[in-house]
Structure formats: structure tokens, C-alpha cells
């Protein structure tokens, strides 16, 4: 296991570090918030131990910055402050656990192992692409070869569903179920109309049509 310790108390930091090395962990040590934030954002760790009160940047800011770049590494706060308000703030900023100083090393080790056993949650996708078609799911934009393609909300939903299943035929029924609400009153040719509009918008000059019609079955997008 690779662990990052962000702790400005040199004695405590060395005690924790030595105890982890004895368990054959790989350990990096940062002595202030700025260094801790840089390491936490830049390198892969299995667990990060983060002091609340740090020079340069406090633990809450460090935690927020690490989470801000999409890192899902488990973070455990180590703090002398036994305050419900601070504990809640730490958890709300992305911490996974909070341990009050002083503590027994055995408890710290057990908490580290428990955090390491938790399944890692992948950050949500922000973009999808097939070939030179790129969808930004946060901004709800589509480009092809760098050129902006203006789609309606439903057209965006249909294209997103196709790209998520690229290389696989998807039926009209599946598209309808995933893009329209159950109580929508849509016409029999609604899917065909939306698909025709999407293809027309995507097939700008010189660009191949990546969407194919599987006669009587549905549609597929692929290179």
C-alpha cells in the first residue's frame, strides 16, 4: 500500500511513517498543506492521511483541492480538534474518515486497512467520443473535428445513448425508453425524424456518416 502523510508535527509524522514502513507500506511525507496538495493531486496513493491544522494551507483546503482534480483516493483526517462541526466540515469536503489525536497506532492501521478495502468509485465521465465526434456531458456540447454541432436536448440524448453503445445495434424501443419519459406521447416516426436530423447535422462537409441504419432493427454508431 502506498500512503501519503501530510503532517507538520515532525515527531508524530516520523512515528507514523516508521510504523507503516514496518508493515511494508510505501510512505511519502509532506510537512505543509501546499506540499500535501501538490503530492495528493499529482501522484497515485492508496490512502492519504491529512492533518487538519497545517502551515500554508489547512486540511480542508487540501482535501478540497485533491477532490477538485478528480482524485478519489481515500482521505483520513488526523486532528487534535474533537469538534462535531469540524468533523462534518471535513466529511463534506470529501474526507472518508476522521481520527482524533492522540490515537493508538493499532487503530490508525485498522482504519487505513478498512479504507483500502473499500471499492474505489470512478469519477463520472465528462466526455464521450467516437472518431472525431466529442460530447461534453457537463457543458452539453457536441463538436466534430473541432466544429460545434448544435443539437436539441432530445437529439443530444439520442446521440449520447448511441455513443455509449458504439459498435452495438440499439433498437428504436431502447432509444425511446432511455431518452423519453414513460408518459411521453410520441409519434411512430419520432425516432426516425430525430435520427435524420442528427445525421444531417453531424455529416458536415467531407465527414463520413458514422451512424448506420440496421433495417427493421435500429441504429448503430461506429467508425
UniProtKB/TrEMBL annotation:
Keyword Phosphoprotein in record: yes
A Pfam family of this chain: Response_reg
Keyword annotations from UniProtKB, A to Z: DNA-binding, Phosphoprotein, Transcription, Transcription regulation, Two-component regulatory system
DNA-binding region as annotated in the record: 125-223
Protein name: DNA-binding response regulator
Any one GO molecular-function label of the UniProt entry: phosphorelay response regulator activity
PANTHER family: REGULATOR OF RPOS
